[in-house]
């Protein structure tokens, strides 16, 4: 009996030592797994897009190929989602209305003699357009004569164009005769040229702000020039002043004949190739991407290149690409725009016009979009060099050509929420709510990240859901939300019979009425859910680095109170005004050959 007992003791001893050994090995494996997880790139960082397949970055190449959606599978029938591809639902019941009320006095009765306002705009074409529009309203508030605005010639764009080179100056003056007195040049004073007093006003200065801050100086000096005039007028004004904004922006600012005629030629050529066309304003320049702080899968080369550009802006903090993407602050890639459009129902036979500057990554970045939409055009492909020569050395004139083609398109799409996107969104609302697709980047980011884990139908359904409220339909944005130039709700009127007509349509459908009502209620809930995700609150405003230090200073008479500012009035009291817009202005319209 001794031998079996000895064997049993020996076996028990081996088992006793085996458990600690297994535990130790397991602990080592777990430690190695955690260590490798820390070293591995974040799936939300390197794995989101993988669209810039750089020749010298195997990292970018491998990621681009591993997560590619089969482009041929993205063919969705728009009728399933009950939406017309080329028009906005119920748009026929809404129209632009900007006529002055009977209480709005004529310019000749309220304009004071020897009171002249001059302004110098800032930025690219569309930023200047907002400045010109607001300058007319500011002159009206001050009961002053407006001298035709000067355009920015010194910043990044280095465009030497004058007002009359881009806009029809005679039409501008004549069309606004009853609203504001406008002259081409400051008149001589005692037979001599005189220099106006120069000053600055804070961002989003209200009408009361102008009266208390500018008017006393104007009464004393008789001529005042306000520089850096972009977004220098409050977003919310009384109804007649808002309607004046619309008359300026949508009726008085007409492009000069050479630009208008060339733009019309481009539109005609797009119409000759197809009954309908989409215009895409694509912001994917190195400057834009660097400023946004986003990452697009180009590896160390991309980080180095864009990081170097980003350092031009001294006030920018270190970027957090993952956070920026979650917040919807990253412009969509060309491929993402294409996937979104295909999911919304636009087929590969659709013709697309692309207005863009220098695309980061060049043709390689554009290749996926061209694969999705082979009928791909730009002003350089539908016009000869000789035709474009009078405009090609002027960035604002080239931008104006793109503006015309985009404005006349059946559907306008943007991958960003910059100045041109905002201006055109507002203009297209005013002139009949033509479809205007702005990506809900915050929500779409999740869809793009997970698109290989869902069917084509699921992908399309998600895109449709998240794009509700971002398609240019009537009433999709609440009145007063966002910039007035983007959402001119004061200037959009509704047919008095609209509700009755729409109700009649429901009754006409009989039994389908209940189902449609339920679908409408669900849609309303979806819109309410996504409207809070509008990108307007997150969109970065790009600045000319040369202006950065000057814009950081508080203007005289202004007390900084954290994120708000208080205007100190002459009577010792103070009034808050909206200064939520960043001091930086957007680097817009980098349109080169």
UniProtKB/TrEMBL annotation:
The chain crosses the membrane at residues 21-40. Residues 561-578 have a biased composition (Polar residues). The keyword Ion transport does not apply. Residues 501-593 are annotated as: Disordered. Keywords: Carbohydrate metabolism, Fucose metabolism, Glycosyltransferase, Membrane, Transferase, Transmembrane, Transmembrane helix. The keyword Transmembrane helix applies. It comes from the Eukaryota. This is O-fucosyltransferase family protein. It comes from Solanum pennellii (Tomato). The gene is LOC107005331.
